[in-house]
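Hi there, hope your week has been kind to you so far. It would help a lot if you went through both lines with me. No rush at all, and the record is pasted right below:

***
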Amino acid sequence: MSYLDPEWRGRACGALRPALLTLALLSGSIVRADSVFLVGGEKVVGRLVSEGPTGIVFESRTLGRLEIARDRIERVEQDSPAAPAPPLTVATNSMAEGGVPGSTSTNLFLPWSDGPSGKAEYDWIQLKSGEWLTGRIKSLQEEKLEFDSEELNLLTFDWKDIRTVHSQRMVSVRIENNKPVDGALLVTTNEVRVVTDTATNSFPRSELLAITPTGDREVDKWTGKISAGVSFRAGNTREVDVNTQATAQRRTPDTRIGLDYLGNFGRINGVATEENHRLSGQYDYFFSRKLYARLPDIEYYRDPLQNLEHRFTIGAGVGYDIIKTARTEWSATVSPSWQRNWFSSVQAGQNSSPHSLAMVLSTRFETELTRRLDFIFEYRGQLTGRETGNDTHHTVATLEFDIHKQLKLDLSFVWDRISNPQTESAGTAPTPNDFRLITSLGVDF
């Protein structure tokens, strides 16, 4: 039976009814603040800063300063209780319209029950501040909820700042020590309810690990970031430096696919001073909240100025999330691997494409320094035989500043080292270390 069938939606909403009523009563606590109700049913709470002919400036308790156009505003309530809403008449047999079988008129604020956003393809979240947003859940992973708001675009919240999640779509929910469960979803302050075709499943909120959408929208499972930096200098010397970076990640409740690219290009008076590309990919399967297997773990690297035409590494390993909180994440992975190098040139009698076994050690640390500033540290070390360079190190330390919503400003320090670079046919040995300081603008998607 499809989750779009009225019979299924009616049964699901009936199963969720007690929790919905409790939720609405809790939402009615009186907290004095200004409230803005948007045309799609969303509600933001905070302080009205200023008004103009085309819109308003509003300081949200959770979302920060917002500029909202007047055509997106239904009404503004100044210095008003945070919870009240007009009386709602809830339909009797359609979950898509907010229906609860046997229900009657109520004064409870259930925003999904009214207006154009009360359709089954939209999700709702309530923040601790009492604000309500509608849109689509992208994912809940690693204590972060990614939410594509209808009015405010893509947002990321710490899970601790979310009071309620309501989805009438089919979503996949992963609970600790359980297989993923697919169904309609309601998360309250202490409970998770998943309504399937045949049953209503209840779990403690503390055991919730992940949420991802199911169905045909593959794009809902992906997130990513693209950033670029360019510098020019002219005069006695013409210098151009370009760097690009892209990351993409696909998430389900118990799997994670990561793809990363980093490229650097440099020219002085038309002569190449830097040209390298690094592309990596991983597939992780989670056994528990913190333990996962990685298969495969792949990296491709090219740096002709280091006499390295190509380098390919493939392996499999195991990883563990050492720290996993709303503000800080730290993971480490160990992967036995195989590596092959292709050198641009070698001295007589030397192998131009040696290979060897390798041990790959990687770690990633991220912490929230302030509300808008994050620190990210990434390291990948490959321990191999002397014929393939002994060992290589790749380290990136980044300060990421949120400029506005999806726009980021990054300041990164990059260190690359090949302990034993291959000597060229002319007898020249490349320098083992490369250092870069990169400033770039990035966009999340």
User: Anything to note?
Assistant: Residues 6-27 form the longest helix (22 residues). Confidence is low (pLDDT under 50) at residues 24-31, 80-108.
